[in-house]
Amino acid sequence: DAAGDPMHFTPHDFRRIFATEAVTGGLPVHITAALLGHKRITSSESYVAVFQDELIRTYRSHLAERRSIRPAAEYREPTDDEWREFQQHFALRKLELGTCARPYSAPCQREHACVRCPMLRVDPRQRNRLAEIASSLRERISEARHNGWHGEIEGLRISLQAAESKLVALDRQARNTPTNLGLPHLTPRN
Predict the structure, then answer these.
(1) Rounded distance, CA 125 to CA 96, Å?
(2) For the residues of 106-175, what is the DSSP string, one character each?
(3) Using CB atoms within 10 A of its CB, is residue 100 exposed (0-12), middle (13-18) or buried (19+)?
(4) Where are the domains of the chain?
(5) How far is residue 113's CA from residue 159's CA, in Å, rounded to a whole number?
(6) For 78-121, how does the pLDDT look when each residue is reduced to its tens digit (9 = 90+)?
(7) Do 170 and 127 meet the contact criterion of CB atoms below 8 Å apart?
(8) What does pTM read for this prediction?
């Protein structure tokens, strides 16, 4: 060892050393598991010692390999216009009710009818505003019924259902607090 004293190993230590060397040398963990006679990969994973420098080296090697097989154009610096467009996308994600989770460069599927959109992540602080919108939608449905605007009613009903669904989700999220189950008390057996 580092102090110059002889080291003592058990056969099991050699299994662990083998597993670590095999996996860090590039052998897939499922093959290592088969060689060790393990039925579950998780058993072999517990044998493998992963050190921080090895983790970083392996990750960098993986990135270099992935980049070598991808087109070089994907790794170029974006132009000023491309960067402004990218930043603008994230500026447009900020909405009155919360945040639009639509991925970059994806078109708006709901034509900015955000209350209906499943990509809207409602800010819990905006619950009262969402409740006002739902109330307004109910009033507009009554007005549309009164005036015989049947086509309008269906669209308003869809928006109301979406708003009510988002309100229920917000309320569920607000109630979702951990429950303390306490610790079990063991009683001695007779």
Answers:
(1) 11
(2) ---TTTT-GGG-TTEEE-GGGHHHHHHHHHHHHHHHHHHHHHT-HHHHHHHHHHHHHHHHHHHHHHHHHH
(3) buried
(4) 11-72, 94-174
(5) 8
(6) 889 988 888 888 887 888 888 888 888 788 877 777 888 888 89
(7) yes
(8) 0.51
